[in-house]
Amino acid sequence: HLSKRLAAVAQFVPQDSIIADIGSDHAYLPIWLTEQNRLKGAIAGEVVAGPFESTQTHVNQWHLDQQIQVRLGDGVEVLDPTKDHVDCIVIAGMGGLLITEILTRGLDHLNGHERLVLQPNIMESTVRVWLNEHDYAIVDEAIVAEDGHIYEVIVGEPGASVAPLSESDHVFGPVLRQTQPNDFQLKWGTMLKKRRHLLQQLQNAQVVPIDKVKAVEHEIALIE
Ligand code: SAM
């Protein structure tokens, strides 16, 4: 049984793919996908000793060490682009900046054909800008609320014709701003209220911080 967040990630993993789950921790995702007969194989990467042991322990408990290779190392650097034949890389449950840093550091370790399924906890726009700048098309997106937080999933594919993204595409997501699911309305409705409240506070300050006011006004206009 997967959390809503990880289920939203799992839906974008193509049937019969070989995946790399980077920052796998408990390895819930590759274990669940393997149990559902969704994968041809999996690599679970971890860089921190504690989580790495947790990955190994869980994989062994499920007797899946033939199906899921657990590797210790930084980001996608655990991958060998000539031997591993990875079809899909998942990086979930980290900040957007960390996700893009991992991808940038490890570019040499990609075979160039992988679908990227990315689930930043914060700084989603950084992920979209990175994908756009590295010629990945954003082919799908999802948004789910769980335990008081709203998570976004962003799917990038190489090789497609990549249209430049607008500022609204970066902030809201090129797919999500078209489909506007309930949790999207919830996220941006809440954000709009918060920004309007902040703007009021800034305007009431003894010394009004003009630049900050302008930035918040711009954000409000975008959301509206
Ligand atoms: N991916 C799982 C999920 O979404 O439920 C676990 C998310 S957990 C919050 C983030 C994991 O990423 C941690 O276990 C951390 O050790 C790992 N991590 C952070 N930086 C990493 C890196 N550069 N390479 C590999 N793993 C990393």
From TrEMBL:
Q: What is this protein called?
A: tRNA (Adenine-N(1))-methyltransferase
Protein's organism = Latilactobacillus graminis
Q: Which SUPFAM superfamilies match?
A: S-adenosyl-L-methionine-dependent methyltransferases
Going by the entry's taxonomy, the superkingdom of the source organism is recorded as Bacteria
Instruction: Extract the InterPro entries matched here.
Output: SAM-dependent_MTases_sf, TrmK
